Amino acid sequence: MTLKDFKLAVCLGPIGADENIPKKGRISSVQQNTFKANVPQEIRYDSCAHMPIHGSSRRCAYCSSTSSPHRTKWICSRCNVGLCLNANKNCFLPYHKR
Questions:
Q1: Residue 12 lies in a domain
Q2: 1-12 burial, b if ≥16 CB within 10 A, otherwise e?
Q3: Does a structural domain hold residue 69?
Q4: Do the domain assignments include residue 87?
Q5: What is the pLDDT of residue 5?
Q6: Is 10 helix (H, G, I), strand (E, B) or coil?
Q7: With bands split at pLDDT 50, 70 and 90, how would you rate the model's confidence at 66?
Q8: How far apart are CA 91 and CA 89, in angstroms?
Q9: Do 44 and 96 touch, CB atoms closer than 8 A?
Q10: Per residue in 38-64, pLDDT tens?
């Protein structure tokens, strides 16, 4: 036991505090959607019939995240997911490679 752990145990011992008690906080009133496009690996990684088609605006299935959402109008015709496809960023190829 390190000196730091010992001091912490001495301080927390008399008050009965436990480190494993979850901390209380406010629960977010906004429910976040945890859905992630789930394409079976057999379809995602097969190398046939994956063609980019222009469609409605969607979030990119490869590079988009909650903290950094990326929207695109390009959709894979076989996987039916949005993927970035422009001069600066090409998520179409890495999404379909292992």
A1: no
A2: eeeeeeeeeeee
A3: yes
A4: yes
A5: 86
A6: helix
A7: confident
A8: 6
A9: yes
A10: 889 899 999 888 999 999 999 999 999
The residue count of the chain comes to 98
Closest-CA residue to 81 (of 34, 47, 35): 35
In terms of C-beta distances under 8 Å and separation of at least 24 residues, what long-range contacts does 59-63 make, across chains too? 60/84, 60/91, 61/36, 61/37, 61/91, 61/95, 62/91, 62/94, 62/95, 63/89, 63/91
**pLDDT of residue 24 exceeding 90:** no
Start-to-end Cα distance in the chain = 45
Which domain covers residue 63, as residue numbers?
A: 51-98
- Tell me the pTM: 0.60
Listed as own residue / partner, the contacts of 70-79 with beta carbons closer than 8 Å and 24 or more positions apart are: 76/50, 76/51, 76/52, 77/49, 77/50, 77/51, 77/52, 77/53, 78/43, 78/49, 78/50, 78/51, 79/37, 79/39, 79/43, 79/44, 79/50
Q: Which residue, among 71, 75, 70, 72, has the nearest Cα to 52 in the 3D structure?
A: 75
